[in-house]
C-alpha cells in the first residue's frame, strides 16, 4: 500500500512538472530588454508615469546608485518612486542637456517569474561644447507580474568618466 501511494505521488509530481510550459528565453530576453529601455527612455523624456509603470510598487523595491564620491540607497516604492519622479531628477534632466544612453552586453539568468540582469551603460550628456560620458554597470532584478516584466531592484555603479582630478582627491 505504501509503495502504491508513493508511486502515485511520484507519477503526479512528474506529470505536473512535465506540464510546465518551457521558457522561451529569446522572447523573455527581448521583453526584459524592452522594459529596461522603456524605463530609461521614459525617464529621459520626463514621462514619469511611464517610467514608474515599469517598476514593482512594493516595500521591497530597491535602488542603489554608486559613483566615486557617493552613493544613494533607496528602499521601498515610496522612496524609489519619489526619486524617479521628484525634484532630484531636475539637475539630471535639464532641457539644455542633450542626453543619450546606450546599453550593451546584456547578461541574464531568466526564471519563470524573475530574472537577474546585468548590462553595461554609457550615459552621454552634451551642453554646448561640453561632453560628458559616464560608463556604468547596471544590475537589475526583474519580476514577472501578471505576464509583464517589472523592475524590482536597480543597482547602478559608475565605472569611468568622472573628473579624474576630483576622483584622485577622494582616494588620497
TL;DR of this structure?
By secondary structure, this protein is an alpha+beta fold. The chain has helices at residues 2-18, 25-44, 48-53, 77-85, 164-171, and strands spanning 62-66, 71-75, 98-110, 114-127, 130-145, 148-160. It has a single domain, classed as Nuclear Transport Factor 2, Chain: A (Roll).
Name its key features.
Nuclear Transport Factor 2, Chain: A; single chain; 172 residues; alpha+beta; disordered C terminus; 6-stranded mixed sheet; 6 strands; 35% helix
Description:
The protein is 35% helix and 38% strand. The protein has 172 residues and is an alpha+beta fold. Strand 1 and strand 2 form a beta hairpin. The protein is elongated, with a radius of gyration of 21 Å. It starts with a helix and ends with a helix.
Q: Beta fraction of the residues?
A: 35-45%
Number of domain units: 1
CATH fold annotation: Nuclear Transport Factor 2, Chain: A
User: H/E order of the elements?
Assistant: HHHEEHEEEEH
Spatial order of the strands forming the largest sheet: 2-1-6-5-4-3
Report the strand count.
6
The backbone outline, from C-alpha atoms, is elongated
Q: What is the top-level CATH class?
A: Alpha Beta
Low-confidence stretches: 164-172
Q: What is the name of the CATH architecture?
A: Roll
Rounded to the nearest angstrom, the radius of gyration is 21 Å
Largest sheet: 6 strands, mixed
Oligomeric form of this entry? single chain
Q: How many angstroms does the end-to-end distance come to?
A: 75 Å
Mean pLDDT: 83
